Amino acid sequence: MKRGSGGFSLLEMMVALALGLVVVLGITRIFIAAKDTYLAQTASAQLQEDARFALSKMIQEIRMVGMFGCLATDAMTYADASIAREFANPITFVRNADGSAQTLTLISAGTGLAGGRPTWTIVTDCRTSAHAYRDAKAAGSGQFALPVHKLVYSVENHQLKLQAGGSPAVMTDNVAALKISFGVANQPSDTAVARYSDSPSDPATIRSVRLSLTLSDPAGRVRDQTYNVVASLRNRLE
Fold first, then answer.
1. CA-to-CA distance for 234 and 238, rounded, in angstroms?
2. Distance between CA 167 and CA 183 in Å, rounded?
3. What radius of gyration, in Å, describes the C-alpha atoms of the chain?
4. Are 54 and 213 in contact (CB under 8 A)?
5. What residues does each domain of the chain span?
6. Closest Cα to residue 101, out of 210, 177, 183?
7. What is the Cα–Cα distance from 139 to 121, expressed in whole angstroms?
8. For 22, 104, 170, 180, which has the most beta carbons within 10 A of its beta carbon?
9. Per-residue pLDDT of the chain (238 residues; tens, 9 = 90+)
10. Could you give the CA distance from residue 97 to residue 105 in angstroms, rounded to a whole number?
């Protein structure tokens, strides 16, 4: 009588090996998909944080555009006539014909630049007198000094930069596009926005700014992300 042979047959070994490979492949694909999802979420969060930082800074300064103290500009005197001309257009936007570069210039009493050297200083008693000087100026007795800055936001070579007196500083990289349009009133005496325009003919009618910032992931893990905000020039809505 023959004794039964032990172990597995070749066919059984091949089936077990194939099933094992299928299980390992499935686990590997789940791991890769989870890793890709994590990297995509991280990239998306980074783009969102970069946009939040850049747009919140721009909104803060846009809201303070035209803030020249507690007296109207027609009651202000100037150290030279060129200051009056600059203050008359506190917000300007220039775009190259080919769209390769664009510049948004603001004249703003921005709180975000506390401690920075001002472009101008308005010295006023908030009752009868206000005088605008270039650079920094100390206030006299019964007066206070309001620092005013010239801020230049520019987009070039996929970078959003801010220049505030010195060399431009990079605010964020990977800028795919920055679209700017202006909410304008029908005439300078109106406060309500009548329409939006990319190139308003009269800067005095600008009442708000619409910003659309598109950022891209250099690694291509997520699609381009676009963020939209609207900021009012609150000093022109009173």
1. 7
2. 30
3. 30
4. yes
5. 40-236
6. 177
7. 9
8. 104
9. 455 556 677 777 788 888 888 888 888 888 888 888 888 899 999 999 999 999 999 998 898 888 888 887 778 999 999 999 888 888 888 877 666 568 899 998 755 544 578 899 999 998 888 999 999 999 989 898 999 999 999 988 899 999 987 788 999 999 998 999 999 999 888 888 999 998 888 888 899 999 999 999 998 989 999 999 999 987 765 4
10. 18
CB 217 within 8 A of CB 47: yes
Pair of tokens at residue 80: 């030279």
Q: Are 208 and 183 in contact (CB under 8 A)?
A: yes
Contact status, residue 7 vs residue 16, Cβ threshold 8 Å: no
Per-residue three-class SS string for the chain? CCCCCCCCCHHHHHHHHHHHHHHHHHHHHHHHHHHHHHHHHHHHHHHHHHHHHHHHHHHHHHHCECCCCCCCHHHCEECCHHHHHHHHCCEEEEECCCCCCEEEEEEECCHHHCCCCCCEEEEECCCCCEEEEECCCCCCCCCEEEEEEEEEEEEECCEEEEECCCCCEEEECCEEEEEEEEEECCCCCCCCCCEEECCCCCHHHEEEEEEEEEECCCCCCCCCEEEEEEEECHHHCC
Within a 13 Å sphere around the CA of 137, how many CA atoms are in the beta-carbon half? 22
Taken as a whole, the chain contains a residue count of 238
